[in-house]
Amino acid sequence: MLFMLIVKASKNSEGANLPDPELIEAMTKYNEELDKAGVRVAAKGLHPSSNGIRISYPKPGEKPIVMDGPFTETKELIAGFILIDVKSREEAIEWAMRMPDPQGHGEGQIELRQVFEAPELSGEQ
């Protein structure tokens, strides 16, 4: 089962502030634990939304609208993600609970979401 640990953005991450060395060390250790357990598929941080582009589809059938960042509401933005392949939802929650505060300032928030896999999308079982 694939799960994505979505690291929510904060004012700190949107300010393009690099994490403290202690947080970098803690996240490196966490990622090494994921690797050692054989569950990490991918893990990446994202540039701030000031470097982002948002494409929206306000009206069906019409041309999409392209907007350059930054985007103002940080609680709706993503700062990074880790994709894990685990045996159960409970195991995914256990791994998410082990992640250090991803912002390091008491601002961290992680959203855990299961990823649709090909058979689920096609209706096959």
The total number of structural domains is 1
Order of helices and strands: EHHEEEEHEH
Strand sequence of the main sheet, in spatial order? Answer: 2-5-1-6
Number of helices: 4
Mean pLDDT across all amino acids: 90
Cα-to-Cα separation, first versus last residue = 14 Å
CATH topology heading: Alpha-Beta Plaits
CATH class: Alpha Beta
**Total number of β-strand segments?**
6
Structural class: alpha+beta
Strand content: 25-35%
Brief characterization of the structure:
This protein has 125 residues and is α+β, with helices and mostly antiparallel strands. It has helices spanning 11-14, 21-37, 89-98, 118-122; strands at 2-8, 40-45, 53-56, 65-68, 78-85, 110-114. The protein has a four-stranded antiparallel β-sheet with strand order 2-5-1-6, covered by helices on one side.
Folded structure, characterized:
With 125 residues, the chain is of the alpha+beta class. It has one domain: Dimeric alpha+beta barrel (Alpha-Beta Plaits), CATH 3.30.70. Helix content is 29%, strand content 27%. It has 4 helices and 6 strands, in the order βααββββαβα. The protein has helices spanning 11-14, 21-37, 89-98, 118-122; strands spanning 2-8, 40-45, 53-56, 65-68, 78-85, 110-114. The strands form 2 sheets. It has a 4-stranded antiparallel β-sheet, with helices on one face. A two-stranded antiparallel sheet has the order 3-4. Strand 3 and strand 4 form a beta hairpin. It is flat and about 45 Å long.
How would you summarize the topology of this molecule?
Layout: E1 2-8, H1 11-14, H2 21-37, E2 40-45, E3 53-56, E4 65-68, E5 78-85, H3 89-98, E6 110-114, H4 118-122
